[in-house]
Specification:
Order of helices and strands: HHHHHEEEEEHEHEEHEH
Strand content: 15-25%
Number of strands: 9
Number of helices: 9
CATH architecture of the largest domain: 2-Layer Sandwich
CATH class of the largest domain: Alpha Beta
Distance between the termini: 46 Å
Number of domains: 4
Length: about 300
């Protein structure tokens, strides 16, 4: 874990107290409330005392402060090194990170530090200028709640209502989840878009998400850090985790129906440490997949 004392509880709580002091909204009662909500027990006793007794000369008697501006948390050198390292990933550059601000910073690790396996080799063309232009237009449409007029290969230009972007780690591809003005759902590969332009702003009811999700219940046996690996592996999915006992957990994963086969393969990668309890339709798919693998193994031998 990358940590610096500047981001400890003491600094964050005092920063919030000073923010309210700069705005003229602070009182003794407010200090205690902030500390109760944001700090640990030992901090709750020491922070108000240090401020009110001028051990930390940051507040006046009337709860104003000599500080003129709202305090900010500057980036530490290690954080800059971390940002420079992840900015080497071409996917990060799609989001237009502040690369120029880090030009004099050494990366914390090099691009080849991590090796990915079991991933498709024909991922999206992240360095392609047209792809990057389309990606940023989609981000802008999602931010400003606007429609998109786009054309994919072999199809005519149509109006779509964007819902969100999804990334498949297995395929190394981004997909645009959208629907037509009449509500028909679509999953569009970003790399398949040939032409794209922004349309008019959407009414509130048009901009709402339409996609329904499926839920699969998993029972996990936490051996050899299986729980930690599962939380990382499924970090891109909405989920709820319930502890059953010291070593067993129930996980509810929510996913799009279109992604069912990918989720199935990801679940199978955990072997016997992850068991599917419901729904029955997912269990049947799991059995069919295992039977197919068994037949293929028998054929090869």
């Amino acid at each position: 874990m990358i940590f610096h004392e500047l981001y400890s509880t003491y600094y964050n709580v005092v920063s919030e107290i000073l923010t309210e002091a700069v705005r003229g909204e602070l009182s003794g009662e407010r200090i205690r409330k902030i500390v109760e909500e944001k700090a640990y027990l030992e901090s709750g006793l020491s922070i108000p005392k240090a401020l009110e007794e001028k051990e930390w000369p940051l507040l006046r008697e009337n709860y104003t402060t000599p500080i003129e501006h709202v305090p900010t948390m500057p980036l530490t050198e290690v954080q800059k090194q971390w940002m420079k390292a992840i900015c080497q990933d071409p996917r990060i550059r799609l989001f237009d990170p502040p690369i120029q601000e880090l030009k004099d910073t050494e990366p914390l690790f090099e691009a080849g530090f991590f090796v990915c396996f079991d991933r498709c080799s024909d991922g999206d063309p992240y360095e392609d200028s047209l792809y990057r232009e389309h990606f940023r237009l989609v981000l802008l449409a999602l931010k400003e709640r606007r429609g998109l007029r786009l054309r994919c290969r072999g199809k005519r230009c149509r109006l779509y209502i964007p819902e969100r972007l999804e990334y498949s780690a297995k395929d190394d591809k981004f997909r645009l989840i959208a629907h037509s003005p009449k509500g028909t759902p679509y999953v569009i590969r970003m790399s398949g878009i040939c032409q794209l332009s922004l349309s008019e702003k959407l009414a509130e009811e048009e901009a709402g998400a339409r996609a329904e999700k499926e839920t699969v219940l998993l029972e996990l046996s936490d051996e050899r850090n299986t729980l930690e690996r599962a939380m990382i592996h499924f970090s891109d999915l909405e989920k709820e985790t319930v502890k059953l006992d010291d070593t067993h957990y129930r996980i509810a994963l929510r996913y799009r129906k279109d992604d069912e086969m990918e989720i199935l393969i990801r679940v199978l990668s955990f072997g016997p440490k992850l068991r599917v309890s419901s729904p029955e339709s997912f269990v049947r798919l799991l059995r069919e997949r295992l039977s197919m693998q068994k037949r293929l193994k028998g054929f090869r031998s």
